[in-house]
Amino acid sequence: MSKVSDRLVILDGGLSNALEDRGHDLSDALWSARLLRDDPAEIAAVHRAYYDAGAMVATTASYQASVVGFERAGVGRAEAERLIASSVRIAREVRDEFPGRLVAASAGPYGAMLADGSEYRGNYGVSAAVLRDFHGPRLELLMSAGPDLLAIETIPDTQEAEVLVRLLTELNFPAWFSYSIDGAFTRAGQPLDEAFAIPAIDQVVAIGINCCTPIDVLPAIRTAVSASSKPVIAYPNRGESWDPVARGWVGDGTAPATFARDWAAAGATYIGGCCRVGPDDIRELHTKYLAEEV
């Protein structure tokens, strides 16, 4: 993220909810990745909406995009690889309309491909070799399309984190690294101070958390600051709970602008939103930052 200032950097929000708000049904296993095949212009429109709202970074529609997932949906391998790479191309084309902005190629956890909610549990019961074989080729595909950095996000456990850190070291490409958490632990139950120590490599430009409840963010930022010298990134969801059976969010939520001042004061440098946080929320965050210099 060397192209942006050392002040607070505002990220985008959730892609899937913004697409749903535009009338798209994302209830199948491909989730937002389906529109890479069916309606890429709508993905571009969401990236544009976030940039218009003040986001400095667009996160690509590749979180749940994998060759395995596309093949299960009847897409051939070559076309699946093209679609995954296209997620970066779409975002880059929109980025070119907004000088100085960045594109982060999203790489979600192995559990996202399973589409059964296991990215919020971790401990998949598979070997490190299986995780490496899943992540390695996908990271290479995303890198080949030319993003500014990778967004290694919503990682639920340290086993997967260790595999991804080894891959990032070998591939030598910049990335931010964020965990999905539950209180002071990863979703799989490992202490956060231990988890934050894992991505201590030059290729990781920021560490932090995403897709967690906003109330868990402040203590997690403090832990990250204590456990690492890396800049800290925080982009939680609105605080609702995901129901993997109904494939929907339940409960009430709060926008990140409500807490941004405290998060920044605690040491967060990059702040945005994840699921259920939309362009209006990012605009509010951007306006609050400009008005109050969070």
Automatic annotation (TrEMBL):
Domain Hcy-binding: 1-289
Keywords: Metal-binding, Methyltransferase, Transferase, Zinc
A molecular-function term among this protein's GO annotations: zinc ion binding
Pfam family, one: S-methyl_trans
InterPro entries: BHMT-like, HCY_dom, HCY_dom_sf, Hcy_S-methyltransferase
Coiled coil regions, renumbered to chain: none
Matches recorded under Gene3D superfamilies: Homocysteine-binding-like domain
Chain sites annotated for binding Zn(2+): 211, 274-275
The protein's name: Homocysteine S-methyltransferase
